[in-house]
Amino acid sequence: MSEHEPTVGYTEVADQDVRSLRVRHCRLRTDRGEPVAALEAVSFRQRFGAVAVAAEGIGGVETRPEFRRQGYMGRLLRRSLGGMTRRVDIAFVSDGIEGVYEKFGFVNAVSEGRLIVPVRNIERAVGGVPGAAVPGVRSGTPADLPAMIRLYNTAHAGRPWTHERQADWNRLVPQTTWNPGSQTLIVQAGDAVSGYAVLEGRAFGDPLGTLSVDELVADDTDAARLLLTALAGVCWQRRRSEFGVREPADSLVGRVARRMGCTYQERFPPSGGMMAAVLNRSELLRKLEPELRRRAGTDRSDRVYCAAYDALRRGSLLPDDRALVRLLLGHWSLGDAGTHGGSVPERYRELCTAWFPGGGSPSLPMPYAHRLDRY
Asked: Burial, 26: exposed, middle or buried (Cβ in 10 Å; 0-12, 13-18, 19+)?
């Protein structure tokens, strides 16, 4: 350290709740109290299929201009990840900067995808779009949130990367003077809510705009069709020919939209984006053992299963943690890992193929990061 370089200290402060997320504020400050760099460590429960585990994510990363390119962000990330390692076994990044987080053990572990639905396809499927008013579909209110949380958790109970939403979840964008916030549509079936859609707020000054749906969840085909029809009506009012839905292609709404005719756009960034890193391999696999057993389709103990599982925990089987997290989340199949040098002994190959089938298979839905859970 040169005589002109300030002394910098590290602090962590935990907040109880920031918009339904538990957050730790991790900061570097000079000895005079000046802020140098900061990030947020966000707590949540993340699914790896039918099992969700405690996890933390990195967000809000920033360094003041006068302290950039001096190694402070690397120092902050190392200290923050050290604290995470003592609390959880897996870390995530919602939107990583290209070429940065790989240095700390993170890898891309989910793609970015959305459905593109032409209005004319829905018109053909339902025999015309009756404007924005569709019987059974109404505007949402805050009182609908508990039902929306239940529908979401039920629909994505086995989907990797999705969050396990708690009862106090509310990540809808609030309306302000200059921000219209989230708009919700609800399918009402008697006294029950059977589906919902969350529309991204239109930008002020753009009365027509595009139509983008942050989330669409339904518990049956009829509810999904009603919501898609209502969205087509909104799109028709704005004189748009298509709309986008940020949902995976193998979800219920994805299957309904595909039958009506749609496009699925998927992006696989080479670096950055949505990333994950294993912090404590053995403990993570211990917690995920019920999910591995479910994928293997066995509830009995046999020697091959136990030997393979023990080898996986020790790291003698598939030792690269970066490949392991992609396999666990379904971003890769075992075949994908094999093309990147992830060899598996022949005696374990059948079991590992069942453990790591890749997302979009009968035993493991596509991994998907819902926009309203990003931080």
From this structure: buried
What letters, b where the CB count within 10 A reaches 16 and e where it falls short, cover 254-278? bebbeebebebeeeeeeebbbbbbb
Angle of helix 303-314 relative to helix 346-355, nearest 10 degrees? 80
Q: Helix 221-237 to helix 252-260 angle, to the nearest 10 degrees?
A: 60
pLDDT digits (tens, 9 = 90+) for 204-215: 555 556 789 999
Residue 315: Cβ within 10 Å count = 14
169 in the Ramachandran plot: left (φ > 0), alpha (ψ -120 to 50) or beta?
beta
**Domains defined along the chain, listed by start:** 8-108 (3.40.630.30), 112-267 (3.40.630.30), 280-355 (no CATH)
Give the pLDDT of residue 187.
Answer: 98
Quickly state the pLDDT bin for 77 (edges 50, 70, 90): very high
Instruction: Output the pLDDT for position 179.
Output: 73
| Backbone torsions φ then ψ of 323, nearest 5 degrees | -70, -40
3 state DSSP class of 276: strand
Residues whose CB falls within 8 Å of the CB of residue 202, separated by 6 or more in sequence, listed in order: 180, 209
Token digits of residue 224: 């999904």
CA atoms of 226 and 122, how far apart (whole Å): 10
Cα angle for residues 352, 165, 16 (degrees, 5° grid)? 120
